[in-house]
Structure formats: structure tokens, C-alpha cells
Design brief:
mainly beta; 4-stranded antiparallel beta sheet; globular; 1 helix; 294 residues
């Protein structure tokens, strides 16, 4: 449960009281190398973006659904697909896009068992988090140690631009979120920083540096900021080293810790905002499943 103190509700979410419950967990991800979590939400059945990963000796890749019976329980991806990480969904074309950290390629397919094929050939040595801006028909790709945010045409896959982020030594550009107005937020898991990119510009700037706050230990050797989501007023982001969920005001960059009770969030990776639920994809080897926080 999310305890003491009222929480500003996210846009479109149902009003909440002073406590916000964790409403469920999915089974652990021990069976597959990478599990793509897709949640159908909203009255029109649209599918937002999310991501998670888990690994074992099976070397298989698959897709599963938490909500929709129309989605197959498993979709095997082609041989040669390596470390799947990011996922984005385009409801207009019913495509699912996944990133391959081992090659930097982006794969695309449909949940009706249409085979996944290479959509974007490698532009960099790795591709990590993905976010689709379906209104502006753009696909954002975080590039890990490359320190860039790649922007592609969502329909053709063509590279539109490569945005240099203000990274430092040990930076690792990890996950991406697109707010409703098109503003893009990017996490740096190496040093605990959050970048922002405005769609009308070709640049990005530092939005939050945890080293300037006293909330968490930004010098810890573990992963720092990871999964991220954004709405009209708020950014929610995971801080893995302290097992914390952080709330950041989009206007002031003021940051606070969300008091999530009853959940060990040390392994929480990707985030998914779905109506009034925030899904946290946990690394199965650490925590054994996913959680849903209302």
C-alpha cells in the first residue's frame, strides 16, 4: 500500500484516498529469457507501452498478457533475437515494437501471431528503452552507453534525428516516457539523472540530478533511475538502488518519495501507467513477479 499522506492523482485517474493499494501481482518470470508485458486498458482497449525483462537458461523469448484474453499467452520471437528490453505498442497499426540490446535492432510484430521481423536495423550498438508517440508518429529509442536519444518515424522506421544527451562519465541512458503534450523524459541509470526533450527542439537538457537532493543515495554502485512514466503534471520514476518510487513535478522538478508499503521494489524495472493503475515490472530473479499500484 502507498501510505501516509495524500498523493496527487495522475491525470485521468480516479480520485484516491490517503492510501493507495497494491492491487495484485503476476506470476514470476522464471520460465523465459524476456517477457513482454502488454496490458489492455482504457475504454477503447488501447494498449500503452511498458517493458520488463527476466532471464534463465531457456533462451526463449515470448509475449504474454495480463488482461486481454484476445492476446496469445506466448509469442516466440525469431532465432537470433538477443536481449530484449524495451517495448512500445502502436494501437493504430496493432504493432508491438521491441528493442534488442545485443544488436541495437528494433523488432516489430503483431499480437495475432504475425511473425516478428526487423523494423529498424541497428543504428547504435545497443537499444534499450522505447517509447512511441502515436500522435506525432515518432518512436524514441534510448541507447544506453551511447548517450543518445534516437528518434525514428513510427511508420517507416526512418531515423529522424539523434539527440545528444548531456551525459557524464558512467552514464547509461535507459528508459523513455512521452507525456501527453509530447515532452520526452529519459532516465540515466548510471548516475541518477533525468533528462527532458521538448518535441519542438532538437536538443535535450538535464531536468533532475539526484546528487543535488538528499532523498536517495545517488552515489550507490547499483542502478539508479530506471523505469519512467509521465502524465500532464507528474513524472514517476524508479530508483533501483534505494528501492524507491519517486514522484517529480513536471513544472518545478520538485521530487519526493512515494511511500509504497507492502512491496519490495528493489527489482522494479519498467513502469506502465494504465488508467488509474501503475504497473511495476519487477526483475523476476529478484522479486518473482509484477505489481500493480492503484
Amino acid at each position: 500500500r502507498v501510505g501516509d499522506g495524500p498523493l496527487p492523482r495522475l491525470a485521468g485517474a480516479a480520485p484516491s484516498d490517503d492510501t493507495i493499494p497494491i492491487v495484485g501481482r503476476t506470476p514470476p518470470f522464471a520460465a523465459v529469457m524476456t517477457l513482454i508485458v502488454v496490458v489492455s486498458c482504457g475504454s477503447d482497449g488501447g494498449m500503452p507501452t511498458g517493458r520488463t525483462s527476466s532471464s534463465n537458461e531457456s533462451g526463449k523469448s515470448s509475449t504474454t498478457s495480463l488482461a486481454s484474453p484476445a492476446v496469445p499467452a506466448r509469442i516466440d520471437l525469431p532465432e537470433g533475437v538477443g536481449g530484449l528490453e524495451g517495448i512500445a505498442v502502436d494501437p493504430d497499426t496493432k504493432r508491438v515494437l521491441v528493442s534488442d540490446t545485443s544488436t541495437g535492432a528494433i523488432w516489430a510484430g503483431r499480437l495475432d501471431n504475425k511473425p516478428f521481423e526487423t523494423f529498424i536495423e541497428p543504428e547504435t550498438t545497443t537499444a534499450v528503452g522505447l517509447a512511441a508517440d502515436t500522435q506525432r508518429r515518432l518512436l524514441y529509442v534510448a541507447t544506453g552507453p551511447e548517450g543518445q536519444l534516437d528518434v525514428h518515424n513510427l511508420d517507416s522506421g526512418e531515423l529522424v534525428e539523434q539527440i545528444d544527451l548531456p551525459v557524464v562519465a558512467n552514464s547509461f541512458v535507459n528508459d523513455v516516457a512521452v507525456a501527453p503534450d509530447g515532452t520526452v523524459y529519459v532516465t540515466d541509470s548510471g548516475v541518477g539523472r533525468l533528462f527532458v526533450h521538448l518535441p519542438e527542439t532538437a536538443t535535450a537538457k538535464l531536468f533532475l540530478d539526484l546528487a543535488t537532493t538528499n532523498l536517495v543515495d545517488a552515489s550507490a554502485p547499483q542502478l539508479q533511475l530506471n523505469g519512467v512514466v509521465a502524465d500532464d503534471s507528474t513524472v514517476l520514476v524508479n530508483h533501483m538502488a534505494s528501492a524507491s518510487l519517486l514522484r517529480v513535478d513536471r513544472e518545478t522538478a520538485e521530487v519526493s518519495v512515494v511511500d509504497v508499503q507492502g512491496a519490495d521494489s528493489a527489482g522494479r524495472d519498467g513502469l506502465l501507467l494504465c488508467d488509474d493503475l501503475l504497473y511495476g515490472a519487477e526483475v523476476g530473479a529478484l522479486n518473482g513477479g509484477n505489481e500493480a499500484i492503484r
